[in-house]
Amino acid sequence: MSSNAARAVDATTHRSPVEIARELGPTFAERAVTTTDEDQFVAENFAALKEAGLVEAGVPAELGGGGASIDELAEMLRILGQHCGSTALAFSMHTHQVAIPAWRWKVQKAAPVEPLLKRIAAERIFLLSSGGSDWIGGSGKAERVDGGYRITARKVFASGSPAANLFMTTAVLESEGEPAQVLHFGLPMNSPQVKVMDNWRTLGMRGTGSNDVLIDGHVVPEAAVAVKRKAGEWHPLFQIIATIAFPLIYSVYLGVAESARDIAVGVAKKKKVDNHMIQLAGRMDTELAGARLAREHMLAAVRLDAPSAETINQVMTGRTLVARHAIATVELAMELAGGAGFYRATGLERRFRDIQAARYHPLQTGPQAQYAGSMALGLPVDKVF
């Protein structure tokens, strides 16, 4: 059985992450009306996620966590996305950073990740990802110093930064006569050399707190560097990261699209329905079905438990299709709702803004098409990102 197969949960003794998300969702939806429209980080929601035990949901039960499968985590994020896109997206960045070492511990028997997983479960710390600014090429500067590396960097799109405890990030080490290396490490957010900028002012997903993070001279000990890899090309670790992370992240956008659809149907049913509205509703539901199928295509790649160039292709094809169909779903929802959808009180305009963020995660449409085309034609993909 795949490590990602859904667990049987005894509802009398344990609430699943999906059940908890359903309980928290309505409160998050109420807060979204004011919080996200005012560029405020969803701090109360993150506190509630922590209190409910969702911070450690993906940590194996043997290490003190909830033992949730990736399928369950994806459903949790989909449901949160229906209620508050900002909360769900910011939390997906923590969730995938937990799911990746959990998968490595379960499938690869990778002992080095165990202390981190135990700490997440015991202390309920939030992890911060810099994936949006690093990706395959890495970013920031690492300089060799006695016993480690001095890091200087500005990381963008650091979702959840106001609540984060540990920053999972990278820096590039350049040595004369050697290929540039990307160093992977975690650093404490309470370091005096780490500063969160208050600069997240955006079209959508306004409550994610995806501020820039400045690192100015923090020294990472040699022993704290988890991985060193060649800059600018795919590495087995990144095949794991990308295969697992993006089905979780894009579950959020599916949830946003589903809620937009439901709002539009509710508005339309209060009107006199004509053939044009019927066709709009049919097109909208067809697009939503496409997004759901594409998300399942992504999760199917995770269930193989064998990250590779092939699973990257499958996941990134799904990522493009989820984005395409989810955006189309919300656009049609706006049209079906008519003028009512233009009012903030309806909730559609926020979802219309939030869904636009689905365009910007890697692999964006150009690199994704190049990757898929290269795979189809038997060409190298190690530097396609």
Automatic annotation (TrEMBL):
Q: Which domain of life is it from?
A: Bacteria
Task: Tell me if Transport is a UniProt keyword of this record.
Answer: no
Q: List the InterPro entries hit by this protein, alphabetically.
A: Acyl-CoA_DH_C, Acyl-CoA_Oxase/DH_mid-dom_sf, AcylCo_DH-like_C, AcylCoA_DH/ox_N, AcylCoA_DH/ox_N_sf, AcylCoA_DH/oxidase_NM_dom_sf
Where is the Acyl-CoA dehydrogenase/oxidase N-terminal domain positioned along the sequence?
31-101
**One Pfam family per UniProt:** Acyl-CoA_dh_2
All residue ranges annotated as the Acyl-CoA dehydrogenase C-terminal domain in the record: 251-361
Q: What's a Gene Ontology MF term here? A: flavin adenine dinucleotide binding
Sorted alphabetically, the keyword list is: Oxidoreductase
Tell me what this protein is called: Acyl-CoA dehydrogenase
Gene source species: Bradyrhizobium valentinum
Query: Lineage of the native species?
Result: Bacteria, Pseudomonadati, Pseudomonadota, Alphaproteobacteria, Hyphomicrobiales
